[in-house]
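HUMAN: Ready with one sample?

ASSISTANT:
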Amino acid sequence: MALLKFLPVLPLFALLFVLSNNGVEASHKIYLRYQSLSVDKVKQIHRTGYHFQPPKNWINDPNGPLYYKGLYHLFYQYNPKGAVWGNIVWAHSVSKDLINWESLEPAIYPSKWFDNYGCWSGSATILPNGEPVIFYTGIVDGNNRQIQNYAVPANSSDPYLREWVKPDDNPIVYPDPSVNASAFRDPTTAWRVGGHWRILIGSKKRDRGIAYLYRSLDFKKWFKAKHPLHSVQGTGMWECPDFFPVSLSGEEGLDTSVGGSNVRHVLKVSLDLTRYEYYTIGTYDEKKDRYYPDEALVDGWAGLRYDYGNFYASKTFFDPSKNRRILWGWANESDSVQQDMNKGWAGIQLIPRRVWLDPSGKQLLQWPVAELEKLRSHNVQLRNQKLYQGYHVEVKGITAAQADVDVTFSFPSLDKAEPFDPKWAKLDALDVCAQKGSKAQGGLGPFGLLTLASEKLEEFTPVFFRVFKAADKHKVLLCSDARSSSLGEGLYKPPFAGFVDVDLTDKKLTLRSLIDHSVVESFGAGGRTVITSRVYPIIAVFEKAHLFVFNNGSETVTVESLDAWSMKMPVMNVPVKS
């Protein structure tokens, strides 16, 4: 559950940027006076066309996604009374394809003594008998004391799961005296080893992030293990933990309880201090109930991320209908609270992504679910388009404000790659991107896309690669730079970036960007590095948005192939007919 947010601990550039822009932050704060200020009018400018959004008001964390009796269910944190955080309930929508959605009444809302002050984030588990159970965090008093509760369907034969019941034997987990009761939330999907079920609950002790482990035989009486599954000094509060297995062979997903020699495990946590997430891949010792990250991975806020941009409070689930693991993530707004209230909405859920282990075993790979391609309509192509230094070529014939773009760049040589400054090894990739933006001439790069661009380039959001030559190998940087995205005021416009672990033997790099009015989701090198930016152009909107390919490096780059599609609007949160 994303709670009260103060100034986040950010890389150098982002910290300076926030301080120099009137304290506008990518994260949210609590504004009591605005929480129940009803929305009278919803502005369409910057609303997404094919990303998940309710008709109005505030949303945040995706909760307990699941597949049940032929329907995908998405629960999410929602304020039914306003466009800022507050009055949180578990909103509920269903879909047959993860793209077209129908809305239902909220599944969970404050109604009992054990959640009267709030129903916060949690997860869903499908029991062996096929019935779902929701675990969630309840707030019991004005001191923000947090406990864990469960809810079950009133009618499990209803595939829509329209009504949920909170049994009277709640709560199921209390914080004992050794636990910080105001930092004890977001229970995970349960998994079973032998006869015992397990769940994790995120917490902290001073500045140590903790994933507390609880066990149960009957799924109702839960007992705290003697030690956490894992904890890391200096990482602060662990929100929205997620723990799941991935296969060492192939791309298929696994049920959360699967173990064995052909499996690795992933632990993801959302860091309240930094407003980023990180994950590790490692070994789960079932006998000791301990998780050991691979020694080669950074186990801290500088570690691997699903997404190096605006992406938080993510949750995965296993989809048994297609044997895949699907990742949901939330993107907050990057404008001001007043702007959110003026437009009548805030927050989107990003396109669900399939996630699996890279064959190297070093990281996860991600890709938008295949169902998204149903929305592709008019297609335009570029083939073997040379991009000399300083060139930008428009991709015409599509709706550039609402598009799906898939491009392969090739280059004849790596010889012109710029030297990688050893000092950069101590910096976040974001800071390197801030120094080496899209306009600064390079050797091999910068090259990529200019998305949501105005015709004369007063506004544009570049998504691009730069290739550097380090002492022992080439390093590839992927950037999504919002600094030039808008002439509007009061906006948080950071450059986001991540390094791409990719083999350049074939001298090619691929990029896919999902462009949707105020969001650009970009997948570099087949999903090895992913970056999401939220942007708010004031010129490059609707039909005045343009798309370009560009190169500002001295090495000529070829657009070997580019396919761009205008994207249709799906059915989005139309009420289910009773």
Remarks:
- Helices lie at 12-19, 337-343, 429-435.
- The mean pLDDT is 94.
- The longest strand covers residues 57-68.
